[in-house]
Design goal:
single chain; about 375 residues; alpha/beta; Rossmann fold; Heat Shock Protein 90; 5-stranded parallel beta sheet; 5-stranded mixed beta sheet; 14 strands; about 20% strand; elongated; binds adenosine-5'-triphosphate; binds magnesium ion
Length: about 375
Amino acid sequence: MTRQRVRLLLVEDSSDDEVLLMHELRDFGFDVSHIRVATREEFLRALEAGPWDAIISDYMLPGFNGLTAFSSVKQRGLDVPFLIVSGVIGEETAVEAMKAGVHDFLLKDKLGRLGPALTRELRESAVRAERRSMQEQLLLSDRLASLGMLAAGVAHEINNPLTSLIMNLDHALNAVPEQQLSLEGEQALRNAFECSLHIRQIVRDIKVFSRPGEQRLGPVELHEVLDSVLRMAWHQVFHRARLVKEYGQNMLAVGNEARLAQVFLNLVINAAQAIPEGRSSTHEIRVVTRLEGADAVRVEIHDTGPGIPLELQERIFEPFFTTKDSGVGTGLGLAICRRVVSEMGGRIGVKSQPGQGSTFWVHLRAAQSALDADAAPRTSLSGSEA
Ligand SMILES: Nc1ncnc2c1ncn2[C@@H]1O[C@H](COP(=O)(O)OP(=O)(O)OP(=O)(O)O)[C@@H](O)[C@H]1O
Ligand SMILES: [Mg+2]
């Protein structure tokens, strides 16, 4: 059995008691690394230097006590198991501490309870952390859905005047007799025309991504979706890798455009994040599409990042599995990808060897024509074989 690792902040003025406590925890089976602090200043500095998995504090300390230490932890909004271990305590003090929210109060001559108490508090704190993270995620996806709705609305509103703008510029360029336009005038018109085409592309990209809640399956032009995704991801990609497209012909898949766009965006961003910045000429992200037999299409995203160890290749699809720092990754990307793809009757998986990059592949049913896509039977498969 692997020993549970604990980074412990010990607030204790006696080094003898430190030895006793550490002995007890290691005997119980924890793999503890700790530092001991004895004054308020040291304690506050150690709090800043965290994170800590748990804090164990004596009650009576020089210049402060266990309760004031605990209130500093609360003030900082930290949710760390906080146990007080004291030589002597009155019943009133113990009650006051528990009321303040201290997780447990133990006596130094009954340390046998320390291991089980810490185990319980670590478990409960992990449950609280997971719940918080899921709530945050729900809020986030809620917010993204409303943002998507807003963006789709704005894109729709822009579309009509934009179409008229493009037609008028086109008319001005082609229908106005040349001699009536100065050279600069024509240059300016051309410039305006190109800008308006660019705006149309941006509006189309926004529409691809922002159809929240829409689940309808239809024939999807894979290359159009992939091109939108690659434009969206460009800022994350260009300083890390060159981008290579290796597209097959006529890739029409059964799926939902907006949700497929999310899947491919996740995969491309993951590929970019796996590659360090700054050596973009030696790294590559390659997007490959091809037909697979008569009724399937396959999209592959290859990268030249560090690869993924074999034992993690299934785990990375679990919700909340991440190796990234908090704030960078929540570990939901691939879990969502797998759910979305299997809802479309497709499959997603990875092939990777450490040191040799990774290839994420997505298999989708091919749509021969617009009619086929609606008529095709829906199967729900999920798997990870290549
Ligand atoms: N192309 C890749 N190369 C190497 N490792 C990868 C690659 N793609 C994913 N991984 C590994 O899989 C883990 C899970 O990926 P996933 O997309 O689910 O979450 P995340 O990227 O960590 O966070 P999120 O997508 O929620 O922002 C990553 O943390 C990383 O360790
Ligand atoms: Mg990701």
